[in-house]
Amino acid sequence: MQISHCNFPEGVLYDLDNLVWIKTDDKDPSVVTLGITPILISLAGKLTKVKLKDIGTTVEKNKSVGSIESIRYFGMVRCPVKGKVIAVNDTLTQIPKIANDSPYDDGWFVKIRIDDSSVMKYDLKNNGLALIEDCHFEIEKIIDKLHVRCFSASPDYEMFEIGVECAATLTKLDELIDKINTGNVVHVVSDDTSADLEMIRWSEERGQGLLEFRKEGNLFHFIVKKLR
């Protein structure tokens, strides 16, 4: 399900207090995989560091299984169940942005074996966790309150060009594109009234990807991907 451009898959349980998700293992209901939601990802921005508890660590309910860090954010990732860490995503600690790009798949954080092996998926719903179909209204309110924005690709760089003519913005974008790696994504914000037409033209002329653009109030948001 998409809510305000943010993805919230079905079959996953959401903890709205800690902004994390867990998914029960299909073969072993005592094991859950934990990750962070797009809400927390939006608040943090591009992750630069992820630390995870060691395998074998016992974690109390609502206590930390690790931490995330970005240029503008530092915070704990808290587990909504009590259990023992049985696996960690080592790749995530090496490449933190995986959580930005793939929060429900490659960007998982840890696997936890719940203390009570009799706990089943729908028992967890009685512990402050909910499926998306049961909590989408609450998530909408959180997204609105926290001014969360989700895009089709997670930005590596951001350009806020308010009160700047589009020609000057595109010159700065050209300079940035020359410096960054192929595949990197730039979020450009402009209030120039011609920004949409100029950005489309720029993308076609430069051969760069314009993955998404939308207007919110008097601001245009563009997601640009360096293709070459």
Structure description:
- This protein is an alpha+beta fold and 228 residues long.
- It folds into two domains: 2-146, OB fold (Dihydrolipoamide Acetyltransferase, E2P) (Beta Barrel); 157-225, Translation Initiation Factor IF3 (2-Layer Sandwich), CATH 3.30.110.40.
- The chain has helices at residues 38-44, 90-94, 98-101, 121-124, 132-146, 166-179, 195-206, and strands at residues 2-3, 6-7, 13-15, 20-24, 31-36, 47-52, 58-59, 63-70, 74-79, 83-88, 110-114, 129-131, 157-161, 185-190, 209-216, 219-225.
- A seven-stranded antiparallel beta sheet has the order 7-10-11-5-4-3-12. The chain has a four-stranded mixed beta sheet with strand order 13-14-16-15, covered by helices on one side.
- A hairpin with a 2-residue loop joins strand 15 (209-216) and strand 16 (219-225).
- It is elongated and about 60 Å long.
- The two termini are 33 Å apart.
- 33% of the residues are buried.
